[in-house]
Amino acid sequence: MPKIKTSRTRQPPEGWEDIEPIMDDFAQRMREAENDPQEGKRKVESVWPIFRLHHQRSRYIYDLYYKRKAISTELYDYCLKHNYADKNLIAKWKKPGYEKLCCLRCIQSKDTNFGTTCICRVPKAKLEADRIVECVHCGCRGCSSGD
Question: How far is the C-alpha of 5 from the C-alpha of 135, rounded, in Å?
């Protein structure tokens, strides 16, 4: 016989009420970005606001836990479990050289023509001075830590 799923609503950990309005604001802005009209934009440009909001929300949780130490481990784990923050992106931020990484697609070599990382990962000092670099995947203008 299959297991019967019961709905057990588990209360969020202590401190959730402090960050809940900000997470609700991120959710509202994400809905607006998803419903934004696409006319006049390139196909890749339509998802850039969603990538930026995803990055901001994950960075907010990362800063609260690792930089400011304002939230508990239980609340941090709760946010990761309920997808308020991207645990894979945060894992990369903890490694040297990836502190400012904008999205995981920028370091995947499968998504590029020559099997390298995205152009936004190149330090600005190594690029031409008059050239404006914009990532095709997420629209960032340089997330290399060596800038």
Answer: 44
Phi/psi region, residue 117 (left: phi>0; alpha: psi -120 to 50; beta: rest), is: beta
Q: Which helix (H) or strand (E) holds 16?
A: helix 16-34
Q: 69-121 pLDDT, tens per residue?
A: 999 999 999 999 999 999 999 999 999 989 999 999 888 888 777 888 888 88
User: For the chain, what is the radius of gyration of the CA atoms?
Assistant: 18
Tokens of 74: 């239980």
Measured CA to CA in angstroms, residue 33 lies from 29, 38, 41, 104, 141 at distances of: 6, 10, 13, 20, 20
The residue extents of the domains of the chain are 16-32+45-94, 100-147
Specify whether the CB–CB gap between 102 and 140 falls below 8 A: yes
Rounded to 5°, angle at Cα 48 from 42 and 49:
120
Residue 11 in tokens:
């209360």
C-alpha dihedral, 67 to 68 to 69 to 70, nearest 10° = -140
